[in-house]
Write a structure and sequence with these properties.
By secondary structure, this protein is mainly α. It contains eight helices and no strands.
Length: about 160
């Protein structure tokens, strides 16, 4: 059996539960674990109803994630394959393209802001592409700068002297 790691909140609840089982008062427990006394009363009721496992199973606040760790790993692998492998015309990932791949793979649509957060969580960062033409010939550019450009520059006029 794979055991999940407990969140900090769950660790607090478990510590409070053990203290309550040893007969400590709610005010003392609240002070020791750093929560409001009313919170400890809520935990005490859960403990009395379902035991220590009830405290472990309290759902975390917030909306549950729409992609699990395995799905996030598959998204990361897909992004590392490159955009052209997923039917895009260039080797450039955009937020919209990443969102389209996630939707295609897992049927979940995210806002662009959330796709950005997912990318950050997966270890990706913003990269600015170079503003150079793919066809650019560096030798031709150097040659043009040496020979053609000086001939085109304005010569200082003789009147200016």
């Amino acid at each position: 059996m794979v055991q999940k790691r407990l969140s900090e909140a769950a660790k607090k609840r478990m510590r409070a539960g053990r203290m309550l089982q040893k007969g400590k008062g709610c005010a003392e427990v609240a002070l020791a674990v750093g929560v409001a006394r009313q919170t400890v009363y809520t935990w005490k009721a859960l403990l009395e109803e379902g035991g220590i496992d009830a405290l472990r199973a309290v759902p975390e606040p917030g909306r549950p994630a729409q992609l699990d760790q395995a799905q996030l790993a598959s998204v990361r692998a897909a992004l590392l394959q490159g955009p052209t492998e997923h039917g895009f015309g260039t080797e450039l990932w955009t937020i919209k393209r990443v969102g389209a791949v996630i939707e295609r793979m897992h049927g979940v649509r995210f806002s662009q802001a959330h796709v950005w957060r997912i990318l950050g969580a997966l270890g990706f960062s913003s990269q600015k592409p170079e503003k150079r033409a793919i066809e650019r010939d560096e030798d031709a550019v150097r040659s043009w700068k040496r020979s053609t450009w000086p001939a085109l520059k304005k010569k200082p006029s003789e009147k200016a002297g």
